[in-house]
Amino acid sequence: RIRHTFYFSLNKNMSGEVSLGAVKKAKLASDKSYKKHADVLSRPIYEQAEALLKERSLDKALALFLEAQAICDASDAPPLGKVKGPPAETKASEDASNATTKAKPAAASEHFSTQEPPSVTLPAPGSEGHRNAKTTTGENTPAVTYAVNDDAVLQAHLKRTGGAYVTRFPPEPNGYLHLGHAKAMHFDFNVATLAPNGKTFLRFDDTNPTGEKQEYIDSIIESVRWLGHKPARVTYSSDYFEELYNLAVKLIENDKAYVCHQTKAETLASRKLVQAFHHKTKDMTREEKYATPLPQGAESPYRNRPIAESLRLFADMRRGLFAEGEVVLRMKGDLRSDVTAMWDLAAYRVILKAHPRTGDAWCIYPTYDYTHCLVDSLEDITHSLCTLEFARRQAPEGSYYWLLDALDMYKPVTFEFSRCNVTHNVMSKRKLTKLVELGLVDGWDDPRLLTLEGLRRRGYTETAINRFCHDLGVTKSERVCVPYSRLEYYIRNELGDVAPRRFAVIDPIKVVVTNHPGESSSPEIDVPNHPAHPEMGSRKLRFTPVVYIESSDFKREDVKGYFGMAPGKTVRLLYSFDVTCDSIVDDPKDPGGKPLEIRCSYNPDSFGQKPPKGTLHWVGSDAVKADEVRVYSSELFTTEEPGKAPVNGAVADGGAAPAALAAVDDEDQEDEDDEEGGGGAKSDWLTELNGASKEAYANALLEPALAAECRVPEKHFQLQRRGYFVSDRRLTAEGKLVLNMTVSLKESGFTKAVRK
Question: Rounded to whole angstroms, what are the CA distances from 110 to 87, 135, 378, 455?
Fold first, then answer.
């Protein structure tokens, strides 16, 4: 970052402005770095810089070229040409004019294997780093640690596992999985491959029946399978409900838990007093702090009730003698600890709702803070991998290890990594649920959402998502907001070589060819399925007396630099003939608007000859009308980080509220993707929803071959000069002809000129 700022300042002229020459030099330097270390993560940033350079946004372009260079300089990627990278993008204009021979494109499943080693170093099972399961260094070294495994307990664990790596992927079944889960899943399953016989459990954290459904369980199992992961076992926290209850009884017997009747308001008041105590004693030594009495009311008045009384009341809780919110079982942690998760968080609460798996067998349910570590231990997990918001809970002096220590149980290694956030989108399950419940999107599998079902319906492949997750890597950066273009990069390059090219006109305008010899004499034109891959074959298109072009490819007046159709102008119909616009038939209801039809004449001698500058895609009168073609924006929200108010042009940072204050209602905090992270200034994220994120075309026309092939769900195509599309996974199965845009083309200069 220091070097970036230094070079940026060097490239400003005397007036403080960035010069064009400086940007070009930075571009060349970035090119050289990429040749030495061809890191694919630099490419989307480099492409953005190129676009900004063309727009003469020099300061932003310079910054991005330097950033792309820095990524390559710091990378251990091999030199360009020494390793096969993603397939090169074939531009629309190249599709029209080039037919160079390449190697046969690989199938999508050949692009990437999920089984690649992770990019971090973790302690091996049975090592010293496993015995001392969580360590910190320097100023962060705690005065007390609960994370050390007893040698006999560790040896018993290793005997049960055979010394293999054992991980778990633990989603809560209260919604569909999203891209952040894909990243976590990729890490969890790949850590298990670090040594032979490793395994990963798919564990459903089903401890809160309020929002859990079998629909979500089924969707999660299918998404895990779709991404290519194979769990050794599928387990549920509810499998251990009886054991968890018995451990809670043991905790009470050890005077480490108590039944509490404080209301939500009373709990909040107590927590504020504890917070005030910590503020008052922040400059004290540990000894001084622990010698200082807590303020009156900081402790729950029930904290020191007799053990026998708590045991009786806890049994009454199980028998259903209390209403929801009337009572909880609390862990008796350490109110003087700097870790807020030690401030007597709830272990059990009353929820009078049926459970998807256990039905009405239980009316009390364990919380995440109680369940997570215990089931990790019961399942002999060697490495418990979570996102960064759980770091304090899993600190050596945190509640995760405190609870295992209090019950003399085996302690797994814990490791935290950064979340995956993507610009102009949300990946908090609570926010996704809100969008679905308010009807602001078309369900959990809406192609605009970054749920795995939504991405799949949009046309993203499992290999593109796995490659994205792999190349994103695992870091501990607290704020990682990835540009959406980086995600698009992987699917665009994968489909570039394997998706057959087809014609579709999504907003058609009728063109009558006045000198056509007639329907029965319509020429059949041989059109390649992929100009760069002759081995993919070809199909026939009929040049009929009536054809259709895009409305956006016609202007009433020609302008300089415009390559579309206009009165008196000649253009080429792609792979076909030159046509000249002779006249326009206006709609009497809308004179000057979209014409009813355009009358053209064609040149029968132009076939196979050098085309004019304008080349347009088209369909004949034998085209098939689609039920709908949907074009999606990459920006579901108008702001890069929805819900985070900008401050002086940047997103505000700030510390999150302490967990114990944020969760005074004792609801679960089990959702590992509960919030996108960070505190600070907030904005009403729902007001930032992009109303133009979806365009639906009900009159789109598809060439016959495309219409036939689209009857198969999840079939990919490139609609020439438009982008990559997929037949809708759900609606196609219902017999409808619906296409969803997966990703736009990397536009050529020609395509941009047509759209001016």
Answer: 12, 40, 38, 20
Q: What is the DSSP string of 687-714?
A: GGB-TTSEEEESS-EE-HHHHHHTTSTT
pTM of the predicted model as reported, rounded to 2 decimal places: 0.81
pLDDT, residue 81, reads 52
For residue 636, CA distances in Å to 484, 548, 552, 583, 709 come to 11, 31, 24, 41, 30
Query: What's the CA gap between 756 and 752, in Å, rounded?
Result: 6
Q: Name the burial class of residue 86, with classes exposed (0-12), middle (13-18) and buried (19+) by CB atoms within 10 angstroms of its CB.
A: buried
Using one digit for the tens of pLDDT, what is the confidence trace for 531-582? 999 999 999 999 999 999 999 999 999 998 899 999 999 999 999 999 999 9
Written as six digits, the tokens of 600 are: 């053209």
Q: Is 172 part of the annotated catalytic residue set?
A: yes
Long-range pairs of 83-88 with CB within 8 A, sequence gap ≥ 24: 83/38, 85/38, 85/40, 86/40, 86/111, 86/467, 86/489, 86/490, 86/493, 86/494, 87/493, 87/494, 87/496, 87/497, 88/493, 88/496
H or E stretch at 257: strand 257-260
The whole-angstrom separation of Cα 180 and Cα 420 is: 5
Q: Please give the average per-residue pLDDT across 439-445, as a whole number.
A: 96
Mean pLDDT score of the chain, rounded to an integer?
86
349 Cβ neighbours under 8 A, 6+ residues apart: 324, 328, 329, 364, 365, 367, 666
Residue 596 CA, distance from chain mean position: 44
27, 172, 212, 640: the active-site residue: 172
pLDDT at site 675: 46
Which helix H or strand E contains 318, and what residues bound it? helix 307-318
Residues 6+ apart with CB under 8 A from 204: 170, 171, 172, 173, 217, 220, 234, 235, 236, 237, 238
Q: What is the DSSP secondary structure assignment for residue 643, as one 8-state letter?
A: T
Q: Which of 203, 419, 542, 721 is catalytic?
A: 419
Q: How far apart are the first and last CA of the chain?
A: 38
Q: Which of 168, 349, 429, 715 is catalytic?
A: 429
Question: What are the residues whose beta carbons fall under 8 Å from the beta carbon of 708, sequence distance 6 or more?
Answer: none
pLDDT digits (tens, 9 = 90+) for 641-691: 998 865 444 433 333 344 444 444 444 444 444 444 444 456 689 999 999
Say if residue 625's pLDDT is above 80: yes
Residue 429 is among the residues annotated as catalytic for this protein: yes
Contact between residue 27 and residue 18 where contact means Cβ atoms under 8 Å apart: no
User: What beta strand segments (E) does 442-536 contain?
Assistant: 481-482, 501-502, 504-505, 508-513, 524-528
Please name the residues in contact with 185: beta carbons below 8 A apart, sequence gap of 6 or more: 169, 177, 224, 227, 229, 469
Cα 21 from Cα 625, distance rounded (Å): 51
**What is residue 267's DSSP assignment?**
H
Residue 234 has pLDDT above 80, yes or no: yes
Nearest to 507 by CA among 718, 719, 713, 708: 719
Helical axes 484-498 vs 42-54, angle rounded to 10°: 100
- Give Cβ neighbours of residue 553 (< 8 Å, ≥ 6 apart): 564, 565, 616, 754
Question: What is the distance between the alpha carbons of residues 203 and 594, in angstroms, rounded to a whole number?
Answer: 57
Give the SS3 label for residue 27.
helix
Residues 357, 359, 365, CA angle at the centre, nearest 5°?
85
Q: pLDDT-derived band of residue 140, with 50, 70 and 90 as boundaries?
A: low
Does 635 qualify as catalytic in the annotation?
no
Please give the DSSP secondary-structure letter assigned to residue 540.
E
Distance CA 501, CA 91 (A): 12
How large is the average pLDDT for residues 743-750? 66
Per-residue DSSP letter, 41? T
Spatial neighbors of 328 by CB under 8 A, at least 6 apart, are 259, 260, 346, 347, 348, 349, 350, 666
φ, ψ for residue 484, nearest 5 deg: -60, -30
